[in-house]
Design a protein that fits this description.
18 strands, binds flavin-adenine dinucleotide, Uridine Diphospho-n-acetylenolpyruvylglucosamine Reductase, domain 2, Vanillyl-alcohol Oxidase, Chain A, domain 3, globular, alpha+beta, about 20% strand, about 475 residues, about 35% helix, 8-stranded antiparallel sheet
């Protein structure tokens, strides 16, 4: 128990057993999918003071009332899968676990949209939509664990984004509980773009209306390239084929996939392409166009038997790590023109021992997920060094006109690189107007000051440490 007695009794009285502050519960909520080296405790107070299990919107209003009165940070959490530290406390506080929020699902076939509560897990949503002949437009590869609310709050993207755009392109309206306790609906572009990527710093998203599409079958093709340079030429050439999704692996990732399955894919840069096709002739036309485009652009077309069932692996990247004790990953968005240089940079930096997967999230941008895995448990110091190496290479993405996938905690301070200066100013002004006591997920988006050395920001400290250690 670390809350002051008055605050603790307010939470206990308001929420009964839905407020918990035993050490075990607090530890459970002190991490996301990445296990942090304990050295981070020097800069981050990631163990919350307590956890409130939210059941209804009114609970959120009550949490904000107490938190404002007692000046306690409120940290929203859904699936906890984003891995950038956004749902971790920075200065302790109370985590609100929103997974138990009442589920709502209302489809509007005329408007091709669905309104759902924020804890909806993508796979459940997709199943409900498919049963009525509809489908999500784009979705993350964490389909089975990520939620729609967390995805939008971290401005997610994913499979199908090449054709339909990322979360901001899908979401048409949101319902939010502001830190003032007001419940508001927003559908204007300016507000939606502020909430996308706000990491729960502007309020708690409780409901979202998003576009859906008809559930059109997909057809697949695959090809390989000898070098990252050829890969980029090839990716650009595919842009004219109205593709649904382009998924890329580096040779090391292909080797891992081969070793954990019965595939024998050539260990080169692999590209798996999917396209929506309504009828047989459309499929034949796609195959013909694909084959011609690949042949004209230095690619090698993969025989269809190689890619049989490979599409199901799009949700299994992290299950390839099942024999791994430790892993760390980074995810960056990079303009397609510079992506071969950045891929080479990452591969060289990690002595060609790095797995890379990429997803085209627009005709101009490639999202790159890269990770290293260690078969055995590694020491805390080694984990910290690796963490800094990841920070160092991510920092360099800015030189290639790219940016970290999202801000969260670890890349707080990169908001300007992602959204530009004008949006940063709008974000700051709006934040000030709705959260004057700075209780809503402090430490995220804008780089916070260090508790042990308040003259320095977290971003500066991580930059310096990554130069020395990384
Ligand atoms: C294997 C794997 C694959 C992934 N693939 C993709 C991908 O393809 N594309 C992609 O975009 N992401 C991907 N992710 C990241 C992540 O899984 C998704 O973005 C996911 O949808 C986040 O949802 P979540 O419920 O886990 O959010 P959380 O991790 O719980 O939260 C994310 C952020 O949103 C805030 N937040 C949570 N709930 C709310 C709320 N109700 N209101 C306001 N703020 C809130 C949190 O404080 C945090 O800052 C992947 C992750 C993994 C592990």
């Amino acid at each position: 128990m670390t809350l002051k007695t008055r605050a603790r009794s307010k939470f206990s009285r308001a929420f009964g057993n839905n407020f918990q502050d035993t050490l075990i519960i607090r530890l459970l909520y002190s991490r996301d999918i990445v296990a942090l080296p304990s050295i981070t405790k020097l800069v981050v107070s990631n163990i919350p003071d307590g956890v409130v299990l939210i059941k209804e919107i009114d609970d959120i209003v009550k949490v904000f009332q107490i938190a404002n009165d007692e000046k306690i940070p409120v940290i929203p959490r859904l699936g906890g899968t984003s891995g950038f530290g956004g749902c971790l406390p920075y200065k302790k506080g109370v985590v609100i676990d929103l997974k138990g929020l009442k589920q709502e699902f209302l489809i509007d076939p005329g408007d091709l949209s669905v309104t759902v509560s924020s804890p909806y897990v993508f796979s459940d949503l997709q199943r409900s939509l498919n049963m009525q002949g509809f489908s999500l437009c784009s979705y993350p590869s964490s389909l089975y664990s990520g939620t729609i609310g967390g995805w939008f709050a971290q401005d997610g993207s994913g499979i199908g984004a090449l054709k339909y755009g990322g979360s901001l392109d899908q979401v048409k309206e949101i319902e939010v509980v502001l830190p003032t306790g007001e419940i508001k609906n927003f559908s204007d572009e300016d507000k939606l773009s502020l909430f996308a990527g706000s990491q729960g710093t502007l309020g708690i998203i409780t409901k979202l209306k998003l576009s859906v599409k008809f559930n059109t079958p997909l057809s697949y093709k695959a090809c390989t390239y000898d070098s990252a340079k050829d890969l980029v030429v090839g990716l650009k050439s595919l842009n004219n084929l109205d593709i649904f999704s382009i998924w890329v692996m580096n040779p090391k990732q292909v080797a891992l996939l081969n070793s954990t399955s019965d595939y024998a894919l050539p260990e080169r840069y692999l590209v798996i392409v999917s396209k929506e096709v309504n009828y047989k002739e459309e499929e034949s036309e796609f195959y013909a166009n694909f084959n011609q485009t690949i042949r004209e652009n230095k690619g090698q077309i993969l025989d269809d038997r190689y890619i049989k069932d490979i599409w199901k692996h799009r949700f299994r990247t992290f299950s390839l790590l099942k024999n791994t004790k430790t892993f760390l990953f980074g995810e960056a968005i990079i303009p397609i023109d510079k992506s071969d240089q950045y891929i080479k940079k990452i591969e060289t930096f990690f002595n060609n021992q790095i797995q890379i997967e990429g997803t085209m999230i627009s005709p101009e941008k490639l999202s790159l997920l890269y990770f290293v895995k260690e078969k055995d448990e590694i020491s805390d110091i080694k984990t910290a060094m690796l963490f800094m190496k990841f920070y160092k290479i991510m920092k360099k993405v800015v030189k290639y006109k790219g940016h970290p996938y999202t801000t969260g905690l670890w890349f707080s301070g990169y908001y300007k690189h992602i959204y530009g200066n004008e949006q940063l100013l709008s974000y700051k002004a709006y934040k000030k107007s709705i959260d004057p006591k700075k209780i809503c997920n402090p430490g995220k988006v804008i780089s916070p000051r260090l508790k042990i050395f308040p003259l320095m920001k977290l971003k500066t400290a991580l930059k310096l440490a990554s130069e020395v250690i990384g």
